[in-house]
Amino acid sequence: MADEAPFQLLHSELVQYIYKSGENAETENGRNITKLENMGFRVGQGLIERLTKDTARFKDELDVMKFICKDFWTCVFKKQIDNLRTNHQGIYVLQDNRFRLLSHLSAGKQYLEQAPKYLAFTCGLVRGALSNLGVRSIVTSEVSIMPACKFQVMIQKM
Amino acid sequence: MADEAPFQLLHSELVQYIYKSGENAETENGRNITKLENMGFRVGQGLIERLTKDTARFKDELDVMKFICKDFWTCVFKKQIDNLRTNHQGIYVLQDNRFRLLSHLSAGKQYLEQAPKYLAFTCGLVRGALSNLGVRSIVTSEVSIMPACKFQVMIQKM
């Protein structure tokens, strides 16, 4: 199905645009990642608002994370997170075995360094969604074998 | 349903980003419109490729336009074009009575001047899709009462 394609293609254009309009310095890369992360944050906020309009209150943090892995992920990527793990102390690892925003990159090792710029937006997306549900977090990502990737969510206690 | 929301919200972030990063001069507005149109063009090309992978050959120009109004529009906006008209001489008018990328703007007249920047991407989208199907065109848009709008497609004979 091509249902996720408009979002995917638009995201890829956005990454290219941001990287093209900036310079190529190392510091610029950091700034671009931040820009993408911030845009993801705002989209995540808007999205979770629409998705939770008619849902019941969440029981606890784990309940929130399950919603992100199922409903939220399906809305954006047309699939669920494949694996959710937690240490029960505020760290959650969400694994996607076939992450859509990486699927257009070849799986060769030489493309691994390209991966972070395609993950920054989604880190922000998760952080924004959680933030609107009252959960402050830091979200990072990691790719070992494409197109699989992991998002690590560290809950910030207030 | 929130199915079109990720695309919609990302598009709105993109428009804001492009307008924020540029200056506010009149000429800059034209450049921003062009940037958005070009990004739409490339997304349209990629999208139509996926959508037509398994479809039969199109009979004629009208057949192509019907595909844009139904399958293509539904894939991006989760609804069909409401009305398609043609003069049978290469001009087509596609009317969407509730255009998704305008639905977040209020309907007041004072927002009408904001409309073009939310339509440029979609003009490019249509032009890109048609271009990949071998149809060269010029696509313009028009809003009279929000959130309804019209896209006019002028086929360019080769």
TrEMBL record, chains A, B:
Q: Name one GO cellular component term.
A: cis-Golgi network
Similarity comment text for this entry:
Belongs to the TRAPP small subunits family. BET3 subfamily.
Q: What function is annotated for this protein?
A: Component of a transport protein particle (TRAPP) complex that may function in specific stages of inter-organelle traffic. Specifically involved in the early development of neural circuitry, likely by controlling the frequency and amplitude of intracellular calcium transients implicated in the regulation of neuron differentiation and survival.
* Record-level GO BP terms: endoplasmic reticulum to Golgi vesicle-mediated transport; nervous system development
The name this protein carries in UniProt is Trafficking protein particle complex subunit 6B
Alphabetized, the UniProt keywords read: Endoplasmic reticulum, Golgi apparatus, Neurogenesis
Q: Where in the cell is it found?
A: Endoplasmic reticulum; Golgi apparatus, cis-Golgi network
Lipid metabolism in keyword set: no
Q: Does the keyword Repeat apply?
A: no
What Gene3D superfamilies does the annotation carry?
Answer: Trafficking protein particle complex subunit 3
Organism of origin is Parambassis ranga (Indian glassy fish)
Source organism lineage?
Answer: Eukaryota, Metazoa, Chordata, Craniata, Vertebrata
Q: What top-level branch of life does the organism fall under?
A: Eukaryota
Q: Which InterPro entries match?
A: NO_sig/Golgi_transp_ligand-bd, TRAPP_component, TRAPPC6/Trs33
Give the main location. Answer: endoplasmic reticulum
